[in-house]
Amino acid sequence: PEGPLRKLYVVHLDLKGAPPRMYFLKALFRLIAAAGANAILVEYEDMFPFEGVLQNASARNAYSRKEILQMLGYAQECGLEVIPLVQTFGHLEFILKLQEFRHFRELSAFPQEICPSNPDTFSVLVQELIRQVMSLHPTTRWLHIGCDEVFHLAACGRCTGRHMNGRLLFAEHVARVAQFVRSEFVGVTPLMWDDMLRHWSSTDLAESGLGELVEPVVWVYAENIARLLPHYVWHMYGRVFPHVWVASAFKGAYGETALVPDLRRHSENNLAWLRIMRTTKIVQFRGMVLTGWSRYDHFAVLCELLPVSVPSLLLNLLLVLHPRWPKLQAIRLWMQALSCPPTVTPDESFVSDPFQWHLGACSFPGSNLFSAVGSYVALQARAMTLYADLTERHGWLTMYNVRHNFSSPWRLLEAHVSVQRLLRELTAFRNSTAHIMTQYFDQFAVDEWLEQKVDPLAEKMASLENFAQNLIARDTWPRRPLS
Ligand SMILES: [Zn+2]
Fold it and tell me: Which residues constitute the signal peptide according to the record (predicted)?
């Protein structure tokens, strides 16, 4: 149905890694709206311009209020409803890592979750976080309060002293946050990730009172959903929650250092969700969130960048929005959405190439970076092979040769040339890719990605070059044994 009862198809924007430039978001919003998405879930983390007591929770390159209003304007023009996300329990690393907020931690060694028994965490920190984010979202109908992966519960002295188990402490804090949202922002319904509730008993969940306060977003990014969500979970949720959301993934689910999304695995995950939603009658599905993680947590390196994940995002949107279409038809529409030339014909099973590198020939926002990452994958493979060949397989540039400065100069000449050639190519790649990335990201994100991906290869090659040079420079050698 249309109107407020229409199911929501939500694209998750995880801004805690490589936050994109505004004009890329504008182009992206147009594409996803054209593909049928009708909402976005915006996870600001440290990219929100916090103020007052929270001002240091913002990254130094956080978006300005003006930029956020601009982004919200683009979303509105495209008919995308905006759902803000604020973590209110765990995954508060971006705040708790700071000296000035460390006293809010549950465990002083781990800056992940707040202590729910410290009265200041709610009254000083959580309320303020919510108020500041909501001040830029005055018309939202939903607020996602996070609450996933709260790994340390009932762990500090204050919490254990209350003689409540972790489940009760969790429920108490979430209920308090949800009640605050509902009373402070009338008409706003809190959403939360479901993983902490999943292993509760039906009675625990019913008695927690959360059924009247929040709507759970049930997330599974694996292809086999039933393995992680046995049917009794749906029975339990169906009895307690009038509405349930689900969450699949289009990036950031199959490896912390992945470069581009695996289309086969992501499409299988999304299609599996379709089957679950079609066959599970005991819950009312409110909407589906296609998550796109940028880092696995605040401290992790970058995984797949958003521009190179546009093909995965559009493919999965088209698949879930047209469940009755044959896959071939969705693929045809996908090629159109990506502005692919007729020469690009994907293998629809994605088995032979789960990354579909030929999509670099299309012209979607992000296609030039997609091509560049394809070149990177080839360079990376060559560098790793050369390194392994020279230091492990061949007999003249192993660590033994280096340690004893003992090798055949003639044997090393060719290796030296190959290493120098690859170093030159890596330098050229770094320069051209920096230029392309600047179209999508600020300098900090560009530098971070290049440092994580390109520099380690260049360092490996530079160390080989250095070793080879020293070994070649020698012209007399000692008698054996060498040690
Ligand atoms: Zn505590």
Answer: none
